[in-house]
Specification:
two-stranded antiparallel ribbon, globular, single chain, 24% strand, 8 strands, Chloramphenicol Acetyltransferase, alpha/beta
């Protein structure tokens, strides 16, 4: 039987501080994508020496979608008003040693190419696995403060940094970027529905599930295709279901024609 100390890790102490009983609405949705062509494209790139994964593709595609078609998905709340992040940054969840989860940020993702996304993410993951990332420092810092003082400190930080949008030392209002991507398929899960991290002032979190071969209808014929479920949680204060629908429409186009990401952004 687990003892109380093993259950009350620094993260659990922090989670019990920042998460409250749900009382606000958020929009959750998911879609099944035929990623057969995308998987073939990824394998072709890997044979050519580029260690491409679905995480790289979906991160870049999401950033391009925001820049090209859905700028509302680059918003955040400050002092009761919807404002825009100054650039499109992506926070990507990564697996750290001892099974812990962390995150790394890619800046100006929409302006990058696939090769740059792969290289930058690889470098940042190596650094994150050698030292604590920003979210790790935050949760361990809060977790080390005795209860109930950590609740009061968290509420003060939340009020100043998130509600009022005041940059604090080491705590920029944009530190978590424009959106979060997490590939739970790499953890063995086929589908998941994300939480909106309260101290991450982002409008949505995108979850990539596992891929499976399934019977699928293509041009009126049933055939075996590789299918991935992608889920999203959106902050209804900033965006609506229509924005999620626009994003998934864009992603469907990319998984069918991933070479579209090789074109330089027209807005650069």
């Amino acid at each position: 039987m687990m003892d109380r100390n093993s259950l009350n890790t620094p993260w659990r102490k922090t989670a019990s501080t920042i998460y409250q009983k749900p009382n606000d609405s958020k929009i959750i949705g998911s879609v099944e994508l035929d990623v057969t062509d995308l998987h073939a494209y990824i394998q072709e790139k890997r044979r050519a020496g580029l260690k491409l994964t679905p995480t790289h593709v979906f991160t870049l595609a999401t950033a391009r979608a925001i820049a090209e078609e859905i700028p509302a998905m680059n918003s955040f709340i400050r002092r009761g008003k919807v404002e825009m992040h100054p650039q499109i940054d992506a926070m990507v969840s990564v697996l750290l040693p001892k099974g812990q989860m962390g995150s790394v940020k890619l800046e100006n993702v929409d302006q990058l190419g696939l090769k740059e996304v792969v290289e930058q993410l690889s470098t940042k993951i190596k650094v994150a696995r050698q030292q604590k990332d920003e979210s790790d420092k935050l949760k361990n810092g809060l977790g080390s403060i005795p209860w109930p003082f950590r609740i009061w400190i968290y509420k003060l930080i939340y009020l100043l940094n998130i509600r009022w949008g005041i940059d604090l030392p080491g705590l920029s209002t944009h530190r978590f970027g424009s959106f979060v991507v997490s590939n739970i398929g790499s953890l063995g899960l086929d589908v998941g529905y994300p939480a909106l991290f309260p101290v991450a002032n982002v409008p949505f979190v995108l979850i990539l599930g596992g891929s499976q071969e399934k019977p699928w209808v293509v041009d009126g014929q049933i055939c075996v295709r590789t299918i991935m479920k992608v889920a999203i949680a959106m902050d209804h204060r900033m965006i609506d279901a229509s924005h999620g629908g626009q994003l998934f429409t864009y992603l469907k186009r990319i998984v069918k024609q991933p070479t579209l990401l090789e074109k330089p952004p027209p807005y650069a």
